[in-house]
Amino acid sequence: MKTKTAFICQECGYASAKWIGRCPECESWNSLVEEVHREQKTRGRASSVEVFSKPERLADVKACDELRVTTGLSELDHVLGGGIVRGSVILIGGAPGIGKSTLLLQVCTALSAKDKKVLYISAEESAQQTKMRADRLGHAGKELYIVSETNLDVIFEHIKKIAPDIIIADSVQVLYLDDISSAAGSVSQVRECAARLTMLAKNSGMAVFLVGHVTKEGSLAGPRVLEHLVDSVLYFEGESHTSFRILRAVKNRFGSTNEIGIFEMTASGLQEVVNPSQMFLTERPEHTPGSAVVATMEGSRPLLVEIQALVSPTNFGLPRRRTTGIDFNRVSLLIAVLEKRCHYALQTQDVFVNVAGGVKVVEPAVDLAAVAAIASSLKEKPIAGGDIIFGEVGLGGEVRAVSHAVQRINEAKKLGFQRIILPRNNLKLAQEALKKTTITLLGVSTVTEAMEAVFG
Ligand code: TYD
Ligand code: MG
To answer: Once rounded to an integer, what is the mean pLDDT over residues 112-131?
Structure first.
């Protein structure tokens, strides 16, 4: 057989016959690497798949009885949409050291304690190292198997012998197949290993967790090629200097996306955070200008977070704008709205906006709170401690209605807030839904009105 080579983009898997400096698919520079292609192998495999599959009437397909297995980690179950689905493949991505192995080892111990058979493929650490860690994380059942192995063919032998219910491959980037000549971690290896494990999951009903490290740029190495292959993609996020970790579903075939789970890293592993809103507000400064609390939605859950702004005179040249946890362009737009519609002199001011606690807010519903925080810092007037602000801001300075207003209000009520400044168009429905409520609801329709409501 004549060996053919192709240049494969290590970011997205794009294949080219000759080397090029920039991938035309994902536009990353210098990411193409020459790899050996063995066409016949793939063709042979494709035909064997055809033999196995057989079209059935949808009405005749039986949904399995015990479709979901709960892991015992309530936050993870929530993110997955209610537990692990039989035969599903879940990719967990995150920066090195964020706690992926810890989380999955906790899943292993919890599941094995429920008499599930679990195989943990610890490809990066030895069995002894894993054992030491597992001992700290809880009491494992007797059906938890650990193997330190990177050759996928050998791993498949083990799987055949043990026949586990759940397989964890930590990490997929160090697994390799002998019949692919490129190095472990290259796109062809990662894609093929993941594809084989996926096929195994679909044919056998075993659930498979794949661990993937993300690169500096924030994409999983060989990432997009894996994302479409698997059923769910979860990202583990968090600042290395804080102990809070957020697990976010960016894709989920068996539940809604954008769901988050919040954990805290402790000496005995990851603990679920039961009341995240309270946690994000514990360090909130009192009577300090530039701090506003917003009720944002993370998937189906309301979450209260603090938005902080600092406005200070520009020393020289162009005013600076910096943001963390909130979109930079969105903040620039909101600053322009404040300048143009409310005549605030921000042209000569540096503006810094930060979301406390390392969370990222992406919803437009946080606009009004960001505007209020900036205005508060500029005026040197604090926002009342019992106020919650939410609403989308339009370019005309209008405040637009947002979704899930009632859930946001209920979360605020639960944490003892007294007053809510919200879009006027949300007010009527909210009042109907919350008939006799002690909380004050203030509907506003423009930013100017909102600023009057906040600062009196
Ligand atoms: P790890 O799960 O090894 O990260 P990953 O697999 O994502 O690379 O997490 C390692 C970090 O977690 C390490 O810095 C130590 C910390 N840790 C704790 O704080 N408590 C614990 O109980 C464990 C097991 C780890
Ligand atoms: Mg690890």
So the answer is: 90
Measure the CA–CA gap between 277 and 295, rounded to whole angstroms.
9
Nearest to residue 387, comparing CAs of 347, 339, 335, 440?
A: 440
Which neighbouring-strand residues pair with 353?
Answer: 309, 323
171 preceded by a cis bond (ω within 30 of 0): yes
Q: What is the number of other CB atoms lying within 10 angstroms of the CB of residue 274?
A: 10
Three-state SS letters, 169-203: EECHHHCECCCCCCCCCCHHHHHHHHHHHHHHHHH
Between the CA of 416 and the centroid of ligand 1 the distance, in Å, is: 35
How does pLDDT run across 26-83, given as a tens digit for each residue?
888 888 888 776 554 444 444 444 445 678 788 887 766 557 889 889 999 999 999 9
Q: State the Cα–Cα distance between residues 186 and 174, nearest whole angstrom.
A: 9
Question: Which of these ranges, 43-47, 174-178, 389-393, 445-449, has the smallest mean pLDDT?
Answer: 43-47
Who contacts 269 (Cβ-Cβ below 8 Å, separation ≥6)?
102, 105, 106, 136, 137, 138
- Residue 275, amino acid: N
Instruction: Report which of 363, 368, 370, 369 is spatially closest to residue 393, judged by C-alpha positions.
Output: 368
Measured from the alpha carbon of residue 97, the closest ligand is 1
Which atom of ligand 1 is closest in space to residue 211's alpha carbon?
6
Which run of H or of E encompasses 42? helix 39-52
Q: Kindly give the number of the ligand 1 atom that is closest to the alpha carbon of 104.
A: 2
Cross-strand bridge partners of residue 84: 69
Q: In 24-143, which ranges are E strands?
A: 32-37, 68-69, 84-85, 89-94, 118-122
Closest ligand 1 atom to residue 137 Cα is 22
What burial letters (b/e) apply to 230-253, b meaning 16+ CB within 10 Å?
A: bbbbbbbbbeeeeebbbbbbeebe
Nearest CA to ligand 1 atom 16: 99
Q: How many CB atoms lie within 10 A of CB 184?
A: 18
Reduce the DSSP state of residue 218 to 3 states and report it: coil
Judge whether 378 and 300 are in contact, CB under 8 Å. no
CA 446 to chain centre: 33
Secondary structure letter of residue 446 according to DSSP: B
Nearby residues of 285 by Cβ (< 8 Å), 6 or more positions away:
291
Tell me what the mean pLDDT of segment 307-314 comes to. 96
CA 102 / ligand 1 centre spacing (Å): 6
